[in-house]
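Q: How would the structure tokens look for this protein?
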Amino acid sequence: MVSFPKNEITSILNGSSQDVKLCKNYELKVCNWLVTNHQTNGYCNACTLNRTIPNLVSDEIIKKWKRLEYAKHRLIYQLQRLDLPLPSKTVSHETGLCFDFIVKGDRNIYTGHANGVITILLAEADSVNLEKVRKQLLEPYRTLIGHFRHEVGHYFWERLVRSDDNILKEFRSCFGDERPDYSETLNEYYKSGPRPNWKDDFITKYASSHPWEDWAETWAHYLHIIDTVETAYNFGLSVSPVSEYSEHMNTKIDIDPYIAKNFKTLIESCAPLFFAVNSINRSMGIKDVYPFIHNPSVVKKLKFIHDMLHP
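A: Here is the predicted structure in token form.
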């Protein structure tokens, strides 16, 4: 995040000069986004979506909340670049979105999504707890940004898929029928585990538990992909292995994924990029950044999301 010397600055927004200031949460060192004068509550587009934040009674709690905010701001940036509607639930109760950041305590509350409310437990920002849960749930690539991207996927399923009969029909053809009882299906998954051949059709084990979870996992991976490709694009990265047997791994990241209409170009550019970065990590004894396989079924699902967002 960038620090500014003054809280009141002038910038060029939407092609015209406006008086702007830093979000009120800048004072707490958790946000550096700008607020225009017409945003009367003093909070930026990302912080306005907060419904509940933890009681900031200690430096440790503030540190964990910062981690949640960093991940959430990255998510909101992506959703804005995709030109997706982000009404606050405080204004649009039926269709709005909000975030509850909760210290669990003794309450029966879990990270998840329900009717536009995304709940993230503060414990998710604790590295020790995160590693413990990774092992318990056999999710070695469980991450904070992954949580945000997954849970907001459930929200947009309700907004973009369920509300449109034609898209819902296409969804069922691609992801399966979501109407079987969700709780029973999920309980069976936790009892028996994923189907033996899950790698043939799903991006992760958990995606095989129910079409809703398949959608949310695939949505999260779509956001993973376009964020990674945009970063590579802004750094001007290209991959050109010296081995004559690796010519098929050549790529130059010369597309902004948020405006790329051609899905094939996007998906083909990310495979060599992930392969190169994974190889670098292995040189340092670090696990792969992206070890996931895009089988034909997964590519079809990713394309469904891409085409829906780029009509």
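Helices lie at 59-81, 127-136, 144-161, 165-175, 182-192, 211-235, 263-283, 296-309.

The mean pLDDT is 88.

Upvote if useful.
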